[in-house]
Amino acid sequence: MGDLAKIFKAYDVRGVVPDELDETIAEAVGAAFVEVTGAASVVVAHDMRESSVPLSAAFVRGARSRRADVVHAGLGSTDLLYYASGSLGLPGVMFTASHNPARYNGMKMCRAGAVPIGGETGLTAIRDRAAELAGAAGGASEPAGALIEKDLLPGYAHHLRTLVDLSGIRPLKVVVDAGNGMAGHTVPAVFDGLPIELTPLYFELDGTFPNHEANPLEPRNLVDLQRAVTETGADLGLAFDGDADRCWVVDERGASVSPSAITALVAVRELAKHPGATVIHNLITSRGVPEIVTEHGGVPVRTRVGHSFIKAEMARTGAVFGGEHSAHYYFRDFWFADSGMLAAMHVLAALGEQRRPLSEVVAAYSRYHASGELNSAVADQGAAFAEVRRAFEGRGETDELDGLTVTAPGWWFNLRASNTEPLIRLNAEAADEGTMKAIADEVLAIVRRVSE
């Protein structure tokens, strides 16, 4: 049995199966989840990994042993689980390791209404109680709660289509790369009957990921999609991660579309429905996002990087929408939860409601030149930050909301430490490419000199 402190992260559970996460632990977590949340009923779904079926079954046994009824949705994406939690008013657990390699699995937990459970909101208590139960012989008793198997995919697809109406768009040719992940299960249901000619890539559910990692943030994982878009003359391409809560967009030329541009595009659409609303963006999205939100009458709010901060700010402000550089998109109309599919539908609607190609549509939302995330392995991170701070003193405004951000007329950069690795991450942006590269090169030279 593994060490629960190692697999319980700040916002979810994730570990190698069976060395770190096995059925004994999953069963104990199921019992602990019910005890800590006080749930009378729980909804559970799982992804396509081979270990997801036995692990989720063990969790169900543990939950039922504490007299909770379990609605088992079977195969689903993470946003399908959020739909289930929101529409049924139940706490929920999704078994997935998202884009991690095949040997991993994990759990994403939420309270009723898709409210996330993190370390400070119950996850630590669940971990500690599960450790007690897993270490005790006969910790879980015989199931007493009911088991209800329910297919929630039709309801999920219908709900999304009530939020974004695609029935009247012009016919579109769309390539979707599911990466052998859960989009291969959900996309056909959502697109059924719409004026979309679908070219599917890797829709076969396979948790060994035989074609490429289900992580669209890595450019190498977009190559097949980009080729298919140009070869088929498609209007756009969509790439989803393993549990389909993130979506990456490729235009008709096969070029990647920045998640910042998608954030701005969706924000404008949501503000048209909700004038004056708040829109959340994290601090390394393009400065074009708050500019465009303001120009369309909205109120931009800047947050730290990470879904917990986005969701907390959305709940606090009642924001209509939130977007991240990592291609996570959050919607008030979707219980403040993230949905890659819903973001994709907004892009399809924006494209299909007029005649221009996607490259022209998103050009209006792409104002600056960005470096992308540049990582450096640094042993003494404190010294690196100190040197960069000293080098840029007096050259711009600084803040430390998340790492170090320096902002000057025409450019900005953010330098922050990874939460999981000995890495420093740099993002830089400027009005012109030359300035962006010069700033990024200067910061990297300092960081890497310190690390030598």
From TrEMBL:
Pfam families: PGM_PMM_I, PGM_PMM_II, PGM_PMM_III, PGM_PMM_IV
Domain Alpha-D-phosphohexomutase C-terminal: 373-444
Any Gene Ontology biological process: carbohydrate metabolic process
Keywords from the named record: Isomerase, Magnesium, Metal-binding, Phosphoprotein
Domain (Alpha-D-phosphohexomutase alpha/beta/alpha) ranges: 6-130, 156-254, 262-368
UniProt GO MF annotations: intramolecular phosphotransferase activity; metal ion binding
Cofactor (UniProt): Mg(2+)
SUPFAM superfamilies in alphabetical order: Phosphoglucomutase, C-terminal domain, Phosphoglucomutase, first 3 domains
Domain of life: Bacteria
NCBIfam families: PRK09542.1
Entry similarity comment: Belongs to the phosphohexose mutase family.
Name listed for the protein in its UniProt record: Phosphomannomutase
Record organism: Nonomuraea pusilla
